Structure formats: structure tokens, C-alpha cells
């Protein structure tokens, strides 16, 4: 009932206050995803240039104000007569105590279902059975999600599953580390935020494809013709490669952190860039993709899910400086990675997360 009251109150506030509540909700979502300087990040993402000095000063002032307010709030709280008692901070100011973590109206507890545990478990299992796709649906998935980021179905399905861009974070998760926080971050879709580097990559992708076609003599099938590919055994593992050619997959990675007077090959040979994804092999005299880099996990996931043997990684700096690195499918490497899907940290299980991570949607959305 509490969720229904909040929903109706939101509608009434938006009707009487010219969508003020909706605007505050959008601002809160941006602040949660981008931090206290979300004004500057949003301006740069929308307009493609650095914000004005006035916006930067406002963002810095806002961040400083929030940090100061958080420092004033004491870690302990006291209540009197159902109200929070004012506490004294270090500078003598009177500050309200923080909300308790186990408060029934705030935090994760506010989404607790009012159903009986048996009814909730039955409803959850029914929802999960409906969510699990059939073999025909898995085959049609690349067609119905064609266009990728321009297709709303692609965005929705990607948020419902684990994308190959996150495989490295999951596979290197240590046994002593709780995977619940990482699973929540993946499901809530924070990785969908587009910064200037992602926008630069989108702009350079057609140019990189043209350079690849000119050098290799193969036509690349673009993302407009396909969308998500799902693993046959683990339907919640998906991938969406940048392109597909006759010889395999094509993945484009733009480079923005190399000095102006250096080339991609020189950067790999001299280790000029920290965390660079390419290395120079002096024995074979060619560039290779580092096995410990997150791009290697992503590409191996793409190859094993789509069922191709080779992925052509295009390291693109500009038209005059780009490198094509062939990455072969490593079945043994993928089998070792898949162990993390079935043996999670502590008593947690990544396979269980993959099959049950969306149950919270039933409690927050589907019941309204």
C-alpha cells in the first residue's frame, strides 16, 4: 500500500506543480549515477564541450556543500518521542541524527514485499519462468534488438542481463569479496552512462570500419543489422559486437590517451600509456592483446557466445594510425571464466544472480 500511496502522490505533485516532482526525480537519478558534479557531466555529454565557468563553479559549490553537510551528520542518533533528537557536531552546530539503517521506511527495507514468504517465492519463481526465453526467442533476439543503442528493446534486454563488457569484473571477483554490490551495479544499469570518450568512439566507429574494409577487403555488417546475442546454456549472458564480417567478429576500440607525436605501435613498445590494452611481442614482431586486460575477457565472451573463431580488434587513433589485431577464440580460457558463474564468493552464486537478479522488478513495478 505504501508504494501505491507514493505513486499517487507523485502524480498529484506533478499535476499541480508543473512536473516539479518529476524533475527532482530525474535530478536525483543523475546525482546518484554521476555524483555531485552531475551538472557539468550532463552538459558535456549533451553539448559535447566543456561547460562554462559558471556551471563549473556551481557544481563545485554544490559538491562542497554536500560534503560539508555529510561531515556534520554524526554517526550515532538518538530519538525522543518518535522524533530525531538534535545532536551536537564538532563545531557546536545542532544537527539532526542520521536515519537508522534498519528503519522500515527507508533504504532497502522500504521495498520489502507485503506478501507472505510462500506467496512471494511462488510469484517470483513464476516470474522467472516467464522471463527465461525459449530456443526460438534466443534465435530471434539479434533481430528484435537490431540497432543496439537506438533500439529501446536492446537497452531493456541489456539491463536484464549480464553484458560482455562486465565479464572481466565478474571473472576476477575474489572469493572473499561480496558479489552482491557488483551484481546490483550491473543490474541497475549505471554502465549505460555515455561520457565524451564513448561519444568519441561512436563517432569514430564508421571511420574505423571503412579503414578495416579497405585494408582487409571484407564487408563489415554493422550494428543496424543485429543486436544482442545470448549464450545458449546461460541465457543471461549476452553480447553485442560492433561488427561481423566473413572471417569473424570486429571490435573497435578508440584511443585518446596517446601523446600527439607517438603512434600506437610506439606506445605499446615503450609502455608509454598506463593500463594500455596492447603489448608488443618481440618474438613474433607484432601487437597482441593483453590476456589480463578487460578487453580480452570481453572479446572471448563475444567469440564463445556468438560462435566465431576470430575477432579483429581495431585499435583506432586516426585514419593514418590504426592497428588490426586478430584475437583467436580460447575455449579453455572461457571454461575457467565460466567457473566464476557457478562458484560465487562465499555462499553467493553468480549463476543464482543470473537467474534471480530481476525478482526485485516484480516487487517495485509489475505489481502496480
Automatic annotation (TrEMBL):
<protein>
    <recommendedName>
        <fullName>YqaJ viral recombinase domain-containing protein</fullName>
    </recommendedName>
</protein>
<dbReference type="InterPro" id="IPR011604">
    <property type="entry name" value="PDDEXK-like_dom_sf"/>
</dbReference>
<dbReference type="InterPro" id="IPR051703">
    <property type="entry name" value="NF-kappa-B_Signaling_Reg"/>
</dbReference>
<feature type="domain" description="YqaJ viral recombinase">
    <location>
        <begin position="153"/>
        <end position="308"/>
    </location>
</feature>
<dbReference type="InterPro" id="IPR019080">
    <property type="entry name" value="YqaJ_viral_recombinase"/>
</dbReference>
<dbReference type="InterPro" id="IPR011335">
    <property type="entry name" value="Restrct_endonuc-II-like"/>
</dbReference>
<dbReference type="GO" id="GO:0006281">
    <property type="term" value="P:DNA repair"/>
</dbReference>
<dbReference type="Pfam" id="PF09588">
    <property type="entry name" value="YqaJ"/>
</dbReference>
Amino acid at each position: 500500500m505504501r508504494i501505491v500511496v507514493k505513486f499517487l502522490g507523485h502524480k498529484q505533485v506533478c499535476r499541480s506543480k508543473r512536473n516539479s516532482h518529476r524533475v527532482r526525480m530525474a535530478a536525483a537519478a543523475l546525482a546518484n549515477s554521476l555524483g555531485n558534479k552531475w551538472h557539468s557531466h550532463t552538459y558535456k555529454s549533451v553539448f559535447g564541450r566543456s561547460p562554462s565557468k559558471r556551471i563549473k563553479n556551481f557544481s563545485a559549490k554544490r559538491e562542497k556543500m554536500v560534503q560539508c553537510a555529510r561531515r556534520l551528520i554524526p554517526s550515532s542518533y538518538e530519538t525522543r518521542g518518535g522524533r530525531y533528537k538534535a545532536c551536537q557536531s564538532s563545531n557546536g552546530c545542532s544537527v539532526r541524527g542520521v536515519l537508522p539503517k534498519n528503519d522500515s521506511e527507508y533504504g532497502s527495507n522500504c521495498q520489502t514485499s507485503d506478501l507472505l514468504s510462500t506467496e512471494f517465492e511462488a510469484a517470483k519463481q513464476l516470474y522467472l519462468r516467464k522471463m527465461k526465453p525459449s530456443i526460438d526467442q534466443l534465435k530471434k533476439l539479434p533481430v528484435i534488438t537490431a540497432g543496439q543503442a537506438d533500439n529501446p528493446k536492446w537497452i531493456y534486454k541489456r539491463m536484464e542481463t549480464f553484458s560482455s563488457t562486465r565479464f572481466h569484473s565478474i571473472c576476477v571477483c575474489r572469493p572473499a569479496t561480496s558479489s552482491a554490490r557488483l551484481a546490483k551495479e550491473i543490474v541497475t544499469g549505471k554502465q549505460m552512462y555515455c561520457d565524451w570518450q564513448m561519444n568519441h568512439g561512436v563517432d569514430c566507429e564508421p571511420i574505423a570500419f571503412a579503414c578495416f574494409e579497405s585494408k582487409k577487403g571484407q564487408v563489415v555488417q554493422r550494428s543496424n543489422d543485429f543486436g544482442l546475442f545470448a549464450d545458449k546454456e546461460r541465457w543471461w549472458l549476452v553480447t553485442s559486437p560492433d561488427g561481423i564480417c566473413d572471417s569473424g567478429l570486429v571490435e573497435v576500440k578508440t584511443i585518446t590517451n596517446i601523446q600527439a607525436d607517438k603512434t600506437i605501435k610506439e606506445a605499446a613498445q615503450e609502455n608509454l600509456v598506463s593500463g594500455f590494452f596492447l603489448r608488443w611481442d618481440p618474438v613474433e614482431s607484432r601487437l597482441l592483446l593483453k590476456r589480463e586486460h578487460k578487453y580480452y575477457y570481453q572479446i572471448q565472451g563475444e567469440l564463445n557466445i556468438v560462435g566465431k573463431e576470430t575477432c579483429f580488434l581495431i585499435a583506432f587513433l586516426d585514419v593514418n594510425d590504426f592497428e588490426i589485431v586478430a584475437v583467436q577464440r580460447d575455449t579453455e580460457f572461457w571454461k575457467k571464466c565460466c567457473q566464476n558463474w557457478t562458484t560465487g564468493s562465499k555462499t553467493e552464486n553468480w549463476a543464482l544472480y543470473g537467474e534471480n537478479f530481476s525478482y526485485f522488478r516484480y516487487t517495485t513495478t509489475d505489481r502496480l
